[in-house]
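Below sits our specimen:

——
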Amino acid sequence: MSGKVVIITGSSGIGLASLQHLCRMGAKVYMTTPDEDRTREALKRVEREGREPGLGEVIWHELDLSDPRSAKTSAERFLTKETRLDILINNAALITDLGRPQLNADGLQDNMAINYLGPYVFTRTLLPLLEATATNGSDVRIVNVGSDGHKSVSYVDYCSKEAWSYKFRWSLLPALERYKYSKLAVHLWTNDLAKRLTAVKSGITLLIVHPGAIISDGAIRSLNTLTFPRFWIFIMGLMMHPQTMGAYTSVFAACSPKDNPHVFHGAYICPPNVSVPQGPNALNELKQRELAEFTERLLREIGI
């Protein structure tokens, strides 16, 4: 990966582990977060745990996915820094709102703003640079981190702000349902974008991945809010994989050679790094169009 320029959104959990893997392979990796203090701790961890053998470079780039305007500005700022972008991994996500969903300045629920709309705008703004890099002969890839939870979403309306802010109040685990709803949006967007890239004969390879059941930094933060957190962390640790392994699918999708039968444009890759079918809702072309059309209409309304 020496000579490759990579963006990974998120500074903890699977994002941090993905960064470490790619950095150790020699890539120049941009870590994108809104908080420089949190990033500073992550960078210290990268140095402490080592960048060998590839000794790749790690650089902080400010990005706030909760505000689509900020996401666009961040991408535009990146365009002034680099003349190439080989890999974009849209990893950052709000895993749980701890039962307290919030609205951003545009009245959008945080799970959809952070997990879907922010990455959508960030990626859209970076597409010209990704295309230019591919035109120059590089193997360019976009890797979106989805979730197999998209297969069990029962509410599939993406045509209004009210729908985007659906609370799932009558669900057993409303916060988890809100997360899965936002991840289904990521799957719908990915599948729609894959077709659009194919239509224009783009050189970009777009993939979506599921990391598996991971005891990540974010999961541990959530468990720490429970009574007897050490007990729950121990129990979850028996059933879930560490975040280093959670990054395997993202890194595999980002840099495995294309002669691998599981690496192809539009592939959905799950552990142990194999392509599998997505759920019917994610493949529903009507829902893909509805989400894309409302997203573009919403962005026009807020001036993006």
The domain at 5-215+244-299 is CATH 3.40.50.720 (Rossmann fold). The chain has one domain: 5-215+244-299.
